[in-house]
Design the sequence.
């Protein structure tokens, strides 16, 4: 648990976002505010369509808001030019998706190495980091398998390794177990608990899983464009 003295990792200030559909603005976030501390694990709940993915995409700088700010490590991500946001994301954010999003034509090792190639890591260092991460997620012997030869749970473990291989301080996950059965989901939550939390990473995960919510330090729920702290319900 975090005391009020912890350093803020992600500051969200008056964040608004709407989409134009058939000529009409459809508001998704209505001036959302929150702060997430370094090392904190936050579950983001909300009905389908409530804006969870939108919020994660804004935090990662994939998307930009209509107004308001996201501040990470004292940098205003929402004011950066697109190219700077991309570089910032590559260094600071790991992202895990519901449908894994591994590149099907690359084997497991190549999927991991790609991230480090983009960050200009040396070949020897890249090999070392990728092997260490594959070991950590228990897939050492699958380095040369292609994604479609792996089960859903194994693919998600590769995706988690890929999201962490460049040592980002922040891990975002968008319904990472949304496509997995109960038992495999529990394995993924265990992995996040044993591998990611001890490293002090800040984690924000959009989920419908009550099990995940119970394991997190804080639970936020998006309801009609506003974020509510509902941690007490899951204590
Ligand atoms: P969640 O992840 O909670 O299911 P999303 O953030 O994906 O919610 O979507 C919130 C709302 O915004 C939904 O109504 C969705 O249809 C709409 N939406 C999301 N992305 C776009 C887009 N690019 N263009 C138009 N509407 C969008
Ligand atoms: Mg979503």
Sequence:
């Amino acid at each position: 648990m975090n005391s009020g003295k912890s350093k803020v990792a992600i500051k969200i200030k008056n964040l608004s976002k709407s989409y134009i559909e058939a000529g009409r603005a459809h508001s998704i976030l209505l001036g959302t505010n929150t702060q997430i501390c370094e090392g904190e694990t936050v579950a983001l709940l909300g009905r389908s369509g409530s804006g969870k993915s939108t919020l994660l995409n804004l935090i990662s700088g994939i998307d930009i808001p209509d107004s308001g700010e996201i501040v990470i490590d004292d940098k205003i991500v929402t004011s950066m030019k697109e190219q700077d946001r991309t570089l910032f994301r590559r260094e600071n954010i790991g992202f895990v998706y519901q449908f894994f999003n591994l590149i099907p034509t690359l084997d497991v090792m190549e999927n991991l190495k790609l991230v480090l190639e983009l960050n200009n890591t040396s070949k020897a260092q890249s090999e070392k980091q990728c092997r260490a991460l594959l070991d950590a997620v228990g897939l050492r012997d699958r380095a040369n398998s292609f994604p479609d030869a792996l089960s859903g749970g194994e693919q998600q473990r590769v995706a988690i390794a890929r999201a962490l291989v460049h040592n980002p301080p922040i891990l975002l996950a968008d319904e990472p177990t949304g496509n997995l059965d109960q038992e495999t989901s529990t394995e993924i939550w265990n992995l996040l608990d044993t591998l990611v939390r001890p490293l002090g990473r800040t984690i924000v995960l959009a989920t419908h899983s009550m099990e995940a919510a119970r394991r997190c330090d804080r639970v936020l729920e998006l309801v009609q464009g506003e974020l509510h702290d509902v941690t007490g319900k899951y204590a």
